[in-house]
Amino acid sequence: MVKVRVPATSANLGVGYDCLGLALDDFATVTFEVIAEGLEIAGCEEAYCNEENLFYQAFVKGLQYMGESVSGIRITVDTDIPYARGLGSSATCIVAGLAGANALFHNRMNRYELFDLATQMEGHPDNIAPAIFGGLCVSFMEDGKPNMIRYGVKRDLLFVTMIPDYEVSTKAAREVLPDTMRYRDAVYQMGRCAALAKAMEIGNAMIMRKACTDQMQEPYRKKLIMEYENVRSLCRETDMITMYISGSGSTMIALTQEEAAARVLVEKIKNQYPSWDARILRATYDGVQSEVC
């Protein structure tokens, strides 16, 4: 039996559409145990306890890549990373499944092979990169292959993660975006994306505040989150550095270096939206980890 641990991830970070991704210290733990025959899945909703399960599909893809097979497999999932909320749940499933197969067969695939296979399944590398490598990752595709580089994140930076009680699908979030953008808007984005990554690494709150002001996707996607403007106002009231939509939403994340302010914002969110989840998270350098049990 092997145990795999994968972090939650947050993509885009406002100005880094489809290229920035961050690993957060909220983890899914998944065990894979070879059994005599068949497929058994525990810890998922009944509707996902079948061969369409993404953990299982990724596990099978990993076996096929290595030319291996098993008689049967039991997959047990322990996670509170919510589905379809913009915290990389699909990347978590894919990376865990591939890593589980890899660990069962003595880790014959390196992390870059996992990165390639996982991106093939996910379709883009922004969540996959931090799920595998940890930290703040910048990723891009070239000749059909994913590439990435990792930045550090200042350790005093806190991520107040506000999770609504409804989903926003990636498909819906992409459909609201325009097909083209102007050169001056592209220049606006590129400068701020580069500045934000470095500012998060060195903890420059002033540059984070100025740089994390997206014009490419959030002006359109915020319409899918009815509470967006009110949440942004709450973030200003509590002196957050900035706030952004995590991935395609519905989760929103506020940045601060003050733990007391983070706790105040969490309480405000819980009071106004009792059915929501609000967590104070930190960046983690722990990408996917596996061990034989």
From TrEMBL:
Zinc listed as a keyword: no
UniProt subcellular location: Cytoplasm
Keyword hit for Cytoplasm: yes
Pathway as given in its UniProt record: Amino-acid biosynthesis; L-threonine biosynthesis; L-threonine from L-aspartate: step 4/5
GO cellular component annotations of the record: cytoplasm
Any one GO biological process: threonine biosynthetic process
Record's function text: Catalyzes the ATP-dependent phosphorylation of L-homoserine to L-homoserine phosphate.
Protein name, UniProt field: Homoserine kinase
